[in-house]
Amino acid sequence: MAEFDLLTIGDLCVDLIIDLGETLPRFGQVEQWVPDYFLEMGGSTAICACQAAKLGLRVAILGRVGDDPYGRLVLQRLQESGVDTRFVGVDAALKTGLGVALCKPDGDRAILTYGGSLNAVYPADVTDEFLDSGRHLHYGSYYLQTNLLPAVPAILSRARARGLTVSLDTNWDPTQTWDGDLAAALAQVDLFFPNEQEALAISRQATVEAALTALLARTPIVAIKRGAAGALVGQGTQRWTVPVDPVAAIVDTVGAGDSFDAGFLAAWLAERSQFSIPAFREKPGEAWGETTCGKLPKAPKNSTRSAPSKAP
Fold first, then answer.
1. CB–CB of 299/307 below 8 Å?
2. What is the per-residue DSSP string for 133-201?
3. Domain 6-22+36-288 has CATH 3.40.50.700
4. How many other C-beta atoms lie within 10 A of the C-beta of residue 83?
5. Which of 151, 97, 86 is nearest to 120 (CA)?
């Protein structure tokens, strides 16, 4: 049996999340007040890894951080969540990656990103030893992990050849070309988790329903994340609209999609042979996890966590 249920390749960074309130940034050396900010571990796959571990999966992550306070914060968050960090390297020549999220009250946000350790993983780092330690590979930040981008289809193909199932969350493409041999990567994927804007851009369709149909021609299961509208999920010719539990007020949506990925994967990996989306949709908040600005959700009651390992 594989040592880990879930492997992922880390876009390791921290997020500086700024609550703008009603303030909009103005140039010209204009100084303005903002209501609040949070400094927290960021990275799509890192957040997904933490949430999956808190849901009871045995999780390991591959990546690099800088030998700096931000890198130590990333390792602390991963380890206290139960993620095994033996495949994370600490590189004194790197700065840990940084994302600055400017968040509006309606949940919309603008993000400025410094790469550093976020895109410091290379194809040679994805060893057979790493792949052989798990039964599922989740890949994210497709366009931000630039040093891996040309090799992603081959990496996913290797994973499948070694018996792993594969999921993908592309996240946003800063160039907005949505290329990078994505079609070849999707051909190796069992589950695809785009948000609505990403699904429309990738599929070149005008509606989310048409996007789902187009994407299902490439991938067996597609779950399109739609914010307050929940999710639109498809498998073969079947379609489901999955609601989310209402909340009194939006704090922030950073990490919500990554938490969704973790919850979906936890349910799918636990019951692959009997997995039922109609049954899964009855408890969406419990299954998918919830997130707030600058904080990682706590583990649900009765969940188990694998013992964390120290990074080298």
1. no
2. TBSEEEEE-TTT-TTTGGGHHHHHHHHHHTT-EEEEE----TTS---TTHHHHHTT-SEE--BHHHHHH
3. no
4. 31
5. 97
Other CB atoms within a 10 A radius of the CB of residue 122 amount to 12
Count of residues in the chain: 312
Q: What positions carry a catalytic annotation? A: 258
Separation between Cα atoms, residue 256 and residue 296, nearest integer Å:
10
Q: Show the tokens assigned to 214.
A: 């187009």
> Could you tell me where the DSSP H helices lie in the chain?
44-54, 69-81, 128-132, 152-161, 182-186, 196-203, 208-216, 256-270, 277-280, 284-288
Domains of the chain: which residue ranges? 6-22+36-288
Residue type, 216: L
| Rg, the chain, Cα only | 18
Average pLDDT by stretches of 10, the chain with 312 residues: 96 96 94 96 96 97 98 98 98 97 88 94 98 98 96 98 98 94 98 98 98 98 94 95 84 85 95 64 45 40 33 34
